[in-house]
């Protein structure tokens, strides 16, 4: 199994020291003279008074990798022409593809902690199959967002819509988010985030990465074109 083909293409926080008081003169004198040493060459090493203060950093102070999976739903069925587009189920081939991609994402270590999905039947069923075969998908927090279905048909709006949804539902401790939806919006968003042309066929997952202390900071810092495309997982790349 391999990855599918890729496409073309702090502020430092102030440290506050509380309850500090200078050490007594006798300790300073002792530490000062013990720090003065002569090297083998006879040259005098630098003399300095060092007062060490333990500073404990927190997770919020660190810029960390944040990963975004943009997954288009698996192949749907046209067997029932009377159904609304929103209500079309997966085909048998689509069901098989969802299993392959979920297992490949698990092998790569790209398991989301948060899943935001269109509420269309084919995206719901894609997720259900992934949850049945990979425990990690079942353990993720899930939100179905009806606007994901409609925004995908609107030119140039999906990327901003996804950014707002991710910042709304995520928390700083969530490092991997998966958004499930439809074309043309999903491949358009992937292309805008990375600055490269990305094609997402059914059940293709674009793996994007950037850094930030929060999702808001990550989107602001990366902007459009600043996300790194780590790869594209496809059903055919999983065989």
Automatic annotation (TrEMBL):
Domain of life from the UniProt record: Eukaryota
Protein name stated in the entry: Phosphoglycerate mutase family protein
Species name: Citrus sinensis (Sweet orange)
């Amino acid at each position: 199994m391999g990855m599918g083909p890729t496409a073309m293409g702090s502020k430092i926080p102030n440290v506050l020291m509380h309850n500090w008081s200078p050490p007594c003169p006798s300790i300073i004198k002792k530490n000062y003279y013990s720090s003065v040493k002569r090297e083998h060459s006879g040259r005098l090493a630098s003399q300095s008074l060092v007062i060490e203060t333990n500073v404990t950093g927190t997770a919020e102070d660190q810029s960390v990798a944040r990963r975004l999976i943009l997954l288009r739903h698996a192949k749907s069925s046209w067997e029932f022409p009377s159904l609304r587009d929103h209500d079309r189920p997966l085909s048998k081939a689509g069901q098989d593809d969802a299993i392959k991609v979920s297992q490949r994402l698990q092998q790569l270590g790209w398991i989301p902690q948060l899943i935001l999905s269109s509420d269309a039947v084919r995206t719901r069923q894609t997720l259900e199959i992934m949850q049945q075969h990979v425990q990690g998908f079942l353990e993720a927090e899930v939100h179905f967002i009806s606007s994901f279905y409609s925004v995908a048909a609107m030119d140039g709006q999906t990327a901003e819509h996804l950014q707002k949804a991710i910042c709304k539902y995520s928390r700083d401790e969530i490092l991997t988010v998966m958004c499930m939806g439809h074309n043309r919006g999903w491949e358009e968003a992937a292309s805008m985030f990375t600055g490269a042309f990305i094609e997402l066929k059914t059940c293709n997952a674009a793996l994007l990465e950037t850094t930030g202390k929060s999702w808001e900071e990550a989107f602001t810092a990366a902007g459009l074109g600043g996300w790194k495309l780590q790869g594209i997982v496809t059903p055919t790349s999983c065989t």
